[in-house]
Specification:
- The complex is a heterodimer of chains A (about 240) and B (about 180).
- By secondary structure, chain A is α+β, with helices and mostly antiparallel strands.
- The N terminus of chain A is likely disordered.
- In chain B, helix 1 packs across helix 2 and helix 7 packs across helix 8.
- Helix content of chain B is about 70%, strand content about 0%.
- Chain B starts with 7 loop residues before the first helix and ends with a helix.
- The N terminus of chain B is likely disordered.
- Classes of the chains: A alpha+beta (about 240), B mainly alpha (about 180).
Chain lengths: ~240, ~180
């Protein structure tokens, strides 16, 4: 849709399109074009921002309504899960009440938790893409686990060092993708060797950045339920490079 | 629960602390703004359960994007309201595309301005109301319907009983008049 510029130097078409974009009124193709334009055309971006400011003032016609407490609790749990890895790296002590992220699906394992702290500094990549390395230490022992993820071939290289499964149990590796409710199994870790390359399917590899990695101990053959059932021995957040 | 009576700089400071992964600040931001944003979600969705889910998504987005808040050039309440509105509209439209017919939207509620929107500059709110007041009533209602109720051109065309293209031409002209007035 086009309109003739009115001769005052103002681009009426851009002004109206910016408003339609801010209001989410544009048909899909025009919407995409406007989104691209907002990224590349600073003037258009400012027009959109101006409309957002003006329209947002209309929101004081909206009656506030107090949301139920469960929304606040869910939001609080979410933030707790998101900050776990970071707080651990800063050396903060893990409070028992800070395990809220485990509540969904992992509650059974919570009583037997041994959490290892995790650091995942981003390694300078030898190529243009991202790269990750993890160092896991335990609150209760000197055990150190290192993990390294290479998104070029979706291989997670894991060195579990001295961390071993209890007698008659096996170690299982899990990924909780960002925003997901339940962890995915990445497979069982062999008792020997202690250094393994875990080849991940591409769709799982792409969920590693921003996710949480954890290791639990499980009955032989792995968890019978599809989620961790034994003690979780390691958990940590993976960050984007 | 605390209402939105914080100043712009309070909310802005909280957003910055959230960008620094400060959970206490995140909950303070929630307490200060959730009633307003829940109102925005309810207004669009007309369904409490859906509005609750939308509100949760809103704060997840706020947590994840707080570090990019500065770059968008919006004032803090505008940013929060925009996130809430867009999240609710996404939900509204995916709900509709999943059903055979379009959900009939409830009529506009009476636009009685509440005292809780101090975080948006009062003068700005007065200004857009004044300028909408200069438009023919149906045009002003169309702008409100699009913004506050997330109505699409199709919804608006049906509501005002005009063809879709006519509706679009109407609204674009009204928006230009509105901009002229706001800048005047």
């Amino acid at each position: 849709m086009s309109e003739v510029t009115d001769g005052t130097g103002r681009d009426d078409d851009a002004v109206a399109t910016a408003a339609e974009y801010a209001l989410e009124l544009l048909p899909p193709r025009e919407r995409e074009a406007a989104a691209r334009r907002a990224e590349t055309d600073g003037r258009f971006r400012r027009l959109v921002a101006e409309w957002h400011e003006d329209f947002a003032a209309l929101a004081d016609e909206v009656e506030p309504a107090t949301p139920p407490g469960r929304v606040r609790r869910a939001v609080k749990r979410f933030a707790a899960a998101e900050t776990r890895g970071r707080r651990r790296r800063l050396g903060g002590r893990l409070a028992a009440g800070g395990l809220g992220w485990l509540a969904g699906g992992l509650a059974a394992a919570a009583s037997a938790l041994v959490i290892l702290s995790v650091a995942l500094p981003v390694v300078e990549p030898p190529y243009s893409g991202p790269f990750y390395e993890a160092r896991l230490t335990s609150d209760t022992s000197d055990a150190v686990v290192t993990a390294r993820f290479d998104p070029r071939d979706n291989v997670l290289a894991l060195d579990r060092g001295g961390v071993t499964a209890p007698e008659g149990r096996v170690l299982q590796l899990w990924l909780l993708p960002k925003g997901a409710d339940a962890p995915l199994s990445l497979g069982l870790l062999p008792q020997d060797p202690t250094v393994v390359d875990v080849q991940l399917p591409e769709d799982i590899g792409s969920a590693i950045p921003g996710g949480l990695l954890e290791i639990s101990e499980e009955p032989p053959g792995g968890s019978p339920t599809g989620g961790p059932t034994g003690s979780v021995l390691a958990v940590g957040e993976v960050e984007d490079a | 629960m605390q209402r939105v009576s914080r100043t712009r700089s309070d909310v802005e400071r909280l957003i910055e602390q959230v960008a620094g992964r400060d959970r206490a600040a995140f909950l303070s931001l929630y307490d200060a703004t959730s009633a307003k944003l829940f109102g925005v979600c309810l207004r669009v969705l007309h369904d409490r359960a859906e509005a609750e889910d939308a509100l949760q998504d809103v704060y997840i987005k706020v947590w994840r994007n707080a570090d990019r808040y500065r770059a968008n050039g919006l004032s803090p309440m505008t940013w929060l309201i925009t996130v809430a509105r867009n999240t609710a509209i996404d939900r509204l439209r995916s709900r509709r595309s999943g059903s055979a017919g379009e959900t009939e939207l409830a009529e506009l509620s009476d636009p009685a301005p509440g005292p809780e929107a101090q975080a948006i500059a009062e003068s700005q709110a007065r200004e857009i109301r004044r300028c909408l007041g200069l438009l023919p009533e149906s045009r002003a209602e169309a702008v409100r319907g699009a913004y506050l109720d997330g109505q699409s051109y199709r919804d608006l065309a049906r509501r005002f009983g005009v063809p879709l293209n006519t509706m679009r031409t109407w609204l674009r002209r009204s928006l230009l008049k509105l901009r002229e007035c706001l800048e005047g």
